[in-house]
Amino acid sequence: MTAILLALASSSAHLIRAPGARAGAAAAPTFESKLKHFAAAAELPALRTEAARLESEMQSAVEEQDFAAAATLRDQLSDLRQKDPAFLASNLRERLEVLVRRESYGEAATTRDQLLVLRRFQPQYQLAGLWKGVYPNHGEATVKIHYEGDTLVAVKMTGDEHVPAGETTFRADLTTPWQEGASVEEIDEEELVGVRVEVVSVGSDGSEQREVERYHGEGRVAARGFQHAHYVPGQLILVEPDTIGFLWQQMGIFVVFNREQDGPGEMMIEQRAVDA
């Protein structure tokens, strides 16, 4: 039986210094130099789990007024998070908002370009293209994923009597992981069981599949004839580079999708981001 690890990364604290900030007399690292220190995509789940552990220990040290230990943990956490492109991206988004408010459009354009570059290092932005999944009561269907800014959008290429072809079946906000800082114990038990059952069914060949990350999303539901169509809360789940899933929460429906062919590539991702 295939096991799936539901470990969520905490991104509530951003300890990477924003571009342009100064730390004493030391020169701030350039954006390009930071790219060289990122961990491989496969290493990010373990890195984020370790970061969450260090953050918890640091908070405990502060509560116990052990400030020397807290400072050491803070430095360790900062070093670790510099290996995660998601933390740098979060800081850059905050910086972009500030620059736009100040009407510093030249610097804002540079920061936006840097955010586009960071997408190449983040698995959630490498999903453009065709995917095939099996919908309960409707059977096999193909969806096409594209990006609108930081939103992933999945459009049905083959429809059914409820949601026809050409309509969005689900979408997800890629900027913030689902339930920051949550542990396995904090995930609803019924939700967790449903996810495990579906993933086991596609991993019955004995290969191990593990969740990389989860993101807030919305799934489309409708009555026959696409009547009363609306979105309900959901989650996008990244399992492997060629396997993702989407959970329609409350309804308990989880669909696993496998990549059909290589996506259009980073050019499409970046172009849609620019056009959004």
UniProtKB/TrEMBL annotation:
Signal peptide residues on this chain, from the entry's feature table: none
Domain UVR: 48-83
Keyword Heme: no
GO biological process entries: protein ubiquitination
InterPro entries, sorted: FBXO31/39, UVR_dom, UVR_dom_sf
Keyword Endoplasmic reticulum: no
Pathway, per record: Protein modification; protein ubiquitination
Keywords assigned: Ubl conjugation pathway
PANTHER family: F-BOX FAMILY PROTEIN, F-BOX ONLY PROTEIN 31
Name the UniProt record assigns to this protein: UVR domain-containing protein
